[in-house]
């Protein structure tokens, strides 16, 4: 069983999403596919943004998933007139240094690729963004709940629950090969109004209407 990978077919875990085959099934988080949407939301919130620092860990996911996110980020940034600076963040001990490096590059915003370490330590990440007064967009609503500016994506908590459901069915006798891999169908979009106000960012009416606003 595998939980929260991007493309288990390309990464060689399963034969297909509908018929996994073998002994592996689970959920996907749609990594590269959601990158352009997040950049579009960032540009809508910060229309004058042209420099973006991207936090990532090259080893967080499979090589093809990571390459796909980089490709999608490059294409989205080019279309929106943005220049990207990649900052490697191997673990929690590198958070402070990553923000210091980002601040020296003087970006208009921070963009982060999905990363289990980022999610598990989201409060530290959000607090550092506030310390350095850097607008940041995240891949989940849960970041916004603890003070992050903007989040868009499938809930990692929800995906973990679905993975647990797979485990329960397998324990009860179901074969992984017969359980289709699930892709998320619900995506959370949230903005923290207090954080936006603190950073002096006005939220466009289009985003106010589309997002869940958290104070």
Q: Your description of this structure?
A:
- By secondary structure, the protein is of the alpha/beta class.
- It has 9 helices and 9 strands.
- The chain has a 7-stranded mixed β-sheet, with helices on both faces. The protein has a two-stranded parallel sheet with strand order 1-2.
- Pairing-aware structural class of the strands and helices? alpha/beta
Our measurement of the CA-to-CA distance between the termini, rounded to an integer number of angstroms, reads: 38 Å
Helicity level? 40-55%
CATH evolutionary superfamily of the largest domain: Response regulator
CATH class of the largest domain: Alpha Beta
Quick overview of this protein structure:
With 215 residues, the chain is an alpha/beta fold. The protein has helices spanning 31-45, 63-80, 95-105, 116-120, 122-131, 141-145, 156-171, 193-198, 205-210, and strands at residues 2-5, 26-28, 51-56, 83-88, 109-112, 136-138, 150-153, 188-192, 212-214. It has 2 domains: 1-30 and 154-184, Response regulator (Rossmann fold), CATH 3.40.50.2300; 33-150 and 187-214, 3-Layer(aba) Sandwich (Rossmann fold), CATH 3.40.50.2300.
List the helices and strands and how they pair.
Layout lengths: L1 E4 L20 E3 L2 H15 L5 E6 L6 H18 L2 E6 L6 H11 L3 E4 L3 H5 L1 H10 L4 E3 L2 H5 L4 E4 L2 H16 L16 E5 H6 L6 H6 L1 E3 L1
Parallel strand pairs: 1-2, 3-4, 3-5, 5-6, 6-7, 8-9
Antiparallel strand pairs: 7-8
Helix pairs in contact: 1-2
Considering the chains and any ligands shown, give keywords for the structure.
single chain, 215 residues, alpha/beta, Rossmann fold, 2 domains, 7-stranded mixed beta sheet, two-stranded parallel ribbon, 9 helices, 9 strands, 43% helix
């Amino acid at each position: 069983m595998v939980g929260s990978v991007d493309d288990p077919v390309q990464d060689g875990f399963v034969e297909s999403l509908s018929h996994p085959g073998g002994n592996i099934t689970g959920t996907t988080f749609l990594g590269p596919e959601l990158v352009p949407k997040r950049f579009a939301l960032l540009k809508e919130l910060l229309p004058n943004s042209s420099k973006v620092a991207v936090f990532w860990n090259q080893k967080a996911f499979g090589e093809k998933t990571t390459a796909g996110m980089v490709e999608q980020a490059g294409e989205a940034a080019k279309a929106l007139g943005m220049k990207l600076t990649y900052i490697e963040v191997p673990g929690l001990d590198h958070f402070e240094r990553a923000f210091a490096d980002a601040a020296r590059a003087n970006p208009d915003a921070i963009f982060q690729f999905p990363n289990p370490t980022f999610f598990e330590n989201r409060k530290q990440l959000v607090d550092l963004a506030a310390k350095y007064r850097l607008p940041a967009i995240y891949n989940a609503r849960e970041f916004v709940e603890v003070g992050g500016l903007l989040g868009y994506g499938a809930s990692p908590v929800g995906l973990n629950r679905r993975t647990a459901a797979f485990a329960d069915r397998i324990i009860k006798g179901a074969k992984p090969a017969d359980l289709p891999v699930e892709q998320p169908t619900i995506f959370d979009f949230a903005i923290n109004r207090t954080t936006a106000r603190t950073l002096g960012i006005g939220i466009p009416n289009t985003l106010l209407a589309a997002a869940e606003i958290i104070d």
